[in-house]
Design a protein that fits this description.
The complex is a heterodimer of chains A (about 210) and B (about 80). Chain A has about 210 residues and is mostly helical. Chain A is about 65% helix and about 0% strand. Chain A has 2 domains: about 10-90, RNA polymerase sigma factor, region 2, helix turn helix motif (Rna Polymerase Sigma Factor, Chain: A), CATH 1.10.1740; about 105-205, Winged helix-like DNA-binding domain superfamily/Winged helix DNA-binding domain (Arc Repressor Mutant, subunit A). Chain A contains 9 helices and no strands. Chain A has helices at about 10-15, 20-45, 45-60, 70-90, 105-110, 140-150, 150-165, 170-175, 180-205. Helices cover about 70% and strands about 0% of the residues of chain B. Chain B has about 80 residues and is an all-alpha fold. Chain B contains 4 helices and no strands. In chain B, helix 2 (about 20-35) packs across helix 3 (about 35-50). Chain B has helices at about 5-15, 20-35, 35-50, 60-70. Chain B has one domain (about 5-70). The complex binds zinc ion. Zinc ion binds near residues 7, 36 and 37 of chain B.
Chain lengths: ~210, ~80
């Protein structure tokens, strides 16, 4: 069983940088899916897989030079973002941080009356226990499904901040966008997911 | 007095303890009086924690695909 803290383990990092294959496998197992999600947000489903594979080759080659000034996680994300950017240069696409494009967030805004009070207040959430564990629960499936329905740029920011735990400054740096943009996207992403989970808790339907 | 909608707009930063003091007090006062917003903030906190617990481990197939790709590109030993 892999634990998150493995990535902070000094001895593990030493082995990783010394070219230990098992340590490299651990790293792939821990980060591959996250990298795929970020790549998908940037270049789309069709070539995301290829972008991430190329990123892993870059990681392999650059690993001896990783200086640990950032966390390994951030460093990996930077490599996958750069790899995706190189593709986008050829395809002239880039993540859009369009402020008007709220994508699903209206559902949350519609919960309020014109005076800003709740007209559809949150329901009591009962399917999760006080210990708040997600494992083996259909709520986890609903959460996954909900995340898949988010707008790609909202999804990416939510993955980087809430799932990966990157700092705002790291995200801004990575995506080359302002902190206020990141905060707006994150708020919309969270509120959109909130609305869908609240619906699930109220109706049992995801 | 902040409206409920405004409280939800500040909720992310409230939970992260990043609000300036005056705003933090404003949100706190509203929460003392409004059970709907209390519920929202509580559920939002739980949800943010839940994101961090989402399983994101790659499968054995995915790992071995990457490993063979990487090893295939290994530069010849000097
Ligand atoms: Zn309220």
């Amino acid at each position: 069983m892999l634990l998150k803290k493995t990535t902070d383990d000094e001895a593990w990092l030493e082995r990783l940088q010394a070219g230990d294959e098992a340590a490299f496998s651990d790293m792939v197992r821990m980060h591959h899916r996250r990298m795929l999600i970020v790549a998908r947000s940037m270049v789309g489903e069709a070539i995301a897989e290829e972008v991430v594979q190329e990123a892993w080759v870059s990681v392999f080659n650059a690993l001896p030079r990783f200086e640990r000034r950032s966390s390994l996680k951030t460093w990996l994300m930077r490599i996958v973002v750069n790899e995706a950017r190189m593709r986008l240069r050829h395809e002239s696409r880039w993540v859009h941080f369009d402020d008007d494009d709220t994508g699903g967030f209206e559902g949350f805004l519609n919960r309020f009356a014109s005076d800003g009070s709740w007209q559809a207040p949150p329901v009591v959430w009962t399917t999760h226990g006080p210990e708040g564990t997600l494992t083996g629960h259909e709520l986890a499936d609903c959460l996954d499904k909900t995340l898949d329905q988010l707008k790609q740029n909202q999804r990416m920011v939510l993955e980087l901040r809430d799932v990966d735990g990157l700092e705002f400054s790291e995200i801004c740096n990575l995506l080359n966008v302002s902190e206020s943009n990141v905060r707006v996207l994150l708020h919309r992403a969270r509120a959109t997911v909130f609305t869908m989970i609240d619906h699930f808790e109220g109706t049992g339907e995801c | 007095m902040l409206s409920c909608k405004e409280v939800t707009e500040h909720a992310d930063e409230y939970l992260a303890q990043e609000l300036p003091l005056s705003r933090r007090i404003g949100v706190g006062l509203h929460l003392m009086m409004c059970k709907h917003c209390r519920r929202y903030v509580k559920q939002l906190r739980w949800l943010i924690g839940a994101f961090g617990e989402l399983p994101r481990q790659a499968s054995d197939e995915e790992v071995s695909e990457v490993m063979s790709r990487v090893k295939g590109r290994k530069p010849p030993a000097a």
